[in-house]
Amino acid sequence: MKSLQLSMLLLSLVLAALLSFSMGALPHEDFLQCLSLRSNDSSTISSVIYTRNNPSYSTVLESTIRNLRFNSTNTPKPLVIVTPSRTSHFQATIYCSRKHGLQIRTRSGGHDYEGLSYVAKVPFVVVEVNFRSVDVDVENRVAWVQAGAILGEVYYRIAEKSRTLSFAGGVFHSIGVGGFISGGGFGLLFRKYGTGGDNVIDAQFIDVNGRILDRKSMGEDLFWAIRGGGGGSFGIVLAWKLKLVPVPATVTVFSVSRTLEQNATQLILRWQEIAHQLPDEMNPDVSMFSVNSTQDGRKTILASFSSLFLGTIDELLPIMQQRFPELGLSSQDCSEMSWIESILYFNQLQNQPLEILLNRTFRNPVGGQYYKIKSDYVKEPISETALNGLFSRLSDEEASSAIIIFMAYGGIMDRIPEDATPFPHRAGNLYKIYYNVNWQEQDNVNSQKYIDWSRRVYNYMTPFVSKSPREAYANYRDLDIGSNNVGITSYTQASVWGRKYFKNNFDRLVQVKTKIDPENFFKHEQSIPPLH
């Protein structure tokens, strides 16, 4: 009898423990109750909340997962997704997340290359910044753009009112404006007008205490930090006031491709010498990838030399004949169009109506939907021997869908100080390197071999790129270069990756973080830490 009583007692203790664990595993229940109490209109807040038992949860979560590498059954999922329809929903979400120990991941376009805007290793909430209005003032050459708008929406709304104004934004039309500017913002016009962050003149921002701040009330230090210091570190940007810049009624695009057998190596060597010195109105790059040779079917490398030019074909050709005659550019290689049509061109959406820029559905014109990205900066031309080693690696089996792009610097970037914004990659850079290895769904079980390939190429390139630090672009997020602990992040640990993204600007970012978010509520694997 005693043994039966003892067994029953043990069973009840186990059940109580299980129940306690079960209740403890659902911290979002208290969070949801808090949201309801904190919101002025509980019926409204309930309509923008998605928990895992909501039939629309997966659809909402997956709607802007741009790298499907982070959409597996093993990928950590948010306890709750909040899609605010008013500013008070953001404030309530921040308050209740802090109160109940949940982290926040803020997502606008979903293009974070390591998925940090929708993945975390601790219990977390995803906040979808889906405020999307674009208010264009042509007369004053400014636009208020909410952070959830995509670049395509910005370009389209500007073009509705003027075909000779634009914003110095990125190439891919489905990138969210919020994250793009938060990481600096590199794009087609950066050699003429600087980065996206260089062209922001005000912002609307929510801090950790729920205060809504503009440039004047936040102060110049915080305004500086949010224009390139990386998303998810300081608070949530609701909107940006953008400076609009002039573009000509007619622009020109060109692309000339050559294989190794067609002297591509010598052309790349020459390109390295002159690309950064080309006029500010150009945006030259070289894309390299493996193809089958037409001669014998063996693999070779195809190098595609392309650029946007802010002007006509007749204006471009004399420049190229003088500066880069080896390329042999002719009028047949060029196409004239409007600026907004060039956005379609670079998104491989030629002959589509402009309204396709409003389509938020992702279509990556470079590679597949499973990928690993890395970046480098180059200060001195890479030798022919070094290039041959790179080409050899591009011929590997794992690189069948890889692409490497050299993106020329120079132009106005040489004339903007390194500390103008947190984005420090200015004078002294010949070009940036973009490494992209991608693969298809059926090969995702072998994803590690592709990631390993990207790391081998990156290691191979070490002697030929920037040093102390080896620089990287914050918007090409790469956790291989360092990451924070899940718990307390040390300054020393964060400076490993932080100096690669921000160089000496990292210290000022830490000072801003310490002042605006001393308890480090807004954090992720590569967020700026406060000083403790």
From TrEMBL:
Signal sequence residues: 1-24
Compartment(s) of residence: Secreted, Cell wall
Keyword set, alphabetical order: Cell wall, Disulfide bond, FAD, Flavoprotein, Glycoprotein, Nucleotide-binding, Oxidoreductase, Secreted, Signal
InterPro entries: BBE, FAD-bd_PCMH, FAD-bd_PCMH-like_sf, FAD-bd_PCMH_sub1, FAD-bd_PCMH_sub2, Oxid_FAD_bind_N
Chief location category: secreted
UniProt cofactor(s): FAD
Molecular function terms, GO-annotated: FAD binding; oxidoreductase activity
Pfam families: BBE, FAD_binding_4
Residue intervals passing through the bilayer: none
Matches recorded under SUPFAM superfamilies: FAD-binding/transporter-associated domain-like (SSF56176)
The keyword Secreted belongs to this UniProt entry's keyword annotation: yes
Statement: the UniProt record of this protein carries the keyword Disulfide bond: yes
Domain FAD-binding PCMH-type residue range list: 74-247
Family of this protein: Belongs to the oxygen-dependent FAD-linked oxidoreductase family.
Protein name per UniProt: FAD-binding PCMH-type domain-containing protein
Source organism of this protein record: Gossypium mustelinum
